[in-house]
Fold these 2 entries.
Entry 1:
Amino acid sequence: MVKVLAILYDGGEHAVQQPKLLGTTENSLGLKPYCEEQGWEYVVTSSKEGKDSEFQKHIKDADVLITTPFHPGYLTADLIKTAKNLKLCITAGVGSDHIDLNAANERKISVLEVTGSNVVSVAEHVVMSILLLVRNFVPAHEQIMAGDWNVAAIAKDAYDLEAKVIGTLGAGRIGYRVLQRLVPFEPKELLYYDYQSLPADAEKAVNARRVEDLKEFLGQLDVLTINCPLHETTRGIINKETLSYLKKGAWIVNTARGALCVAEDVAAALESGHIAGYAGDVWAQQPAPSDHPWRSMRGPHGNGNGMVAHYSGTTLDAQQRYAAGTKKILDNWRTGSAQTPSDIIVTDGEYATKAYGQREKK
Ligand code: NAI
């Protein structure tokens, strides 16, 4: 019998209040009837850390693993060794760095994601986060909730987005959508840094300029938005040194992956006032520990923190799309039909995408 294991987050009362919360253990991506029809065992759990977790117990004989980046089941090389039957990993969403892709390749386990399923959801969150930092929204709101009224305290750190230089590190599906959405704000310039160039017509449509040197790229920015996957060469790409390339007072929005940034270096840069703000929804470990520096960091005026839990790509609209996409991948696998090529991250021991680093084909 085929065994499908899904690691999802618990919805509790919220899943009852909102049946569209498909990504919860309670609503199980809507896949229970489908798995029952096939006579498959479908195990759904949120318990994912440590050797006594349901994840580590059930991965040993699961054929298919479904995970989401929001409550990631970290499939390490060691766990892959124990997963004797595993053939397919499906990421319900986008971003499969929580799976050791090189170890999956060694075992010829395929890893697929629902490409594009939440890219608009994230791009909208990025634009919102840029605005809330630049306009100093969070302290302004906190002040009102606290019963205070002090315009000067807020306005001294509030700017317009117009005429700023904004750059995306990674100009794929999300990065490009961010650029598209920023055009009406009339920035001074839109820049991007990516080893893959945008097609000329796409570049022209948003009037973006590619900068090939990271230092030169960062040095021009008022706002940095990070939109590349986490892999060997992007881990910690924003660190003490690269932060120093940014102009004093720059703002950073990272909705890509927490581990792209060195947490302590970002917190130090904010606290010293070198950067004016940091916002996003991704953390190197999720759920983030209660003492993570990004929960409490603030700029010298108590400003500049726009962090939230990982939810930008799990809006109810996105959940519908990634639940449907997960079912499609599962059904293609069951029937032996071809998978949508852009959904494939690794298969047959090779990377099928150019987004996870510049790699030579074997
Ligand atoms: P994509 O594959 O369409 O684009 C990624 C781009 O990053 C590619 O153009 C690639 O060449 C570029 N890139 C890779 N390594 C780079 C490097 N070293 N330097 C510069 N550019 C580099 O992916 P998409 O759909 O835009 O998603 C990007 C990432 O966003 C995902 O991998 C995931 O980590 C994150 N994400 C976060 C979500 C959230 O809820 N916060 C939801 C969806 C995705």
Note: The chain is about 35% helix and 15% strand.
Entry 2:
Amino acid sequence: MYQEDFKSGFVSIIGRPNVGKSTFLNRVIGQKIAIMSDKPQTTRNKVQGVYTTDDAQIIFIDTPGIHKPKHRLGDFMMKVATNALREVDAILFMVNVTEPRGAGDDFIIEKLKGLDTPIILVMNKIDMIHPDEIPAVIEQYKNQLDFAAYVPISALQGNNVEPLLKEIKKLLPEGPMYYPADQVTDHPERFIISELIREKVLHKTRDEVPHSIAVAIESIKKRENSEMVDVEAVIMVERDSQKGIVIGKKGAMLREIGTEARQDIEMLLGTKVYLNLWVKVQKDWRNKMGQLRDLGFRD
Ligand code: GDP
Ligand code: MG
Ligand code: K
């Protein structure tokens, strides 16, 4: 899809741990899809979320590893991350207004020096200070880098987040809508995850349950302030006897299915996963069209 005057681009959020990067992303994108699959346009960077309006699309990507390297592998990771920052359209450098500029901030500043990418200084946690204190925060940073804008926000309470998104838009080039606008409401990995679980059930029970069983993914949620993703899924069988087989003696079978499926899902998503599995008997569920669509069922 191409629309005249439509702007789109890739944005990376960097900052010391605990400045509020995840809180901000969750507020803008919604917790449902704090993780998404890679698309070719995003090269090696992981898409964290997509924010779409009538006239713009902001794709937030993860550039891990901008922190002091502890060993040689860290060094290499740093190089990859620094290169990735050259490829984005804008960088949000997030700082915590309740703390003075520190070594961690200075390390990031060093990495950002010499990049042509526009940088917005995002001063987070303004709910903790008096507005009169903001100029002093700007004072600490303004001589360090050539900032495109200075935006105070509270990611936690949502203050000034809209104006920040507007500032980001100003920095984006005209471009296509890379992702469908409704992508934010769905999780592209949903179907793959359900198939992974279904495969484990069939394999572990040695086909004692029919292939017609279905797995419904109830929710995929990233935990606040943690890399852990909670996945809730229901294995739908048609008979009580099948339910017994899937659960196994004292739940042993279901635990095995869960462990193996979880490992695969962790590989797929690249994060730690807590998998909550249920088994439900749903007679003639195949006739229920609405549910079929929810399940993404194909025969
Ligand atoms: P990250 O490590 O940069 O991803 O930081 P997080 O998003 O995990 O936030 C770290 C802590 O700061 C959490 O306890 C958040 O609730 C808190 N936090 C984030 N944004 C704000 C904010 O705007 N105001 C306040 N008061 N706390 C915040
Ligand atoms: Mg975080
Ligand atoms: K992530």
Note: The chain has nine helices and nine strands.
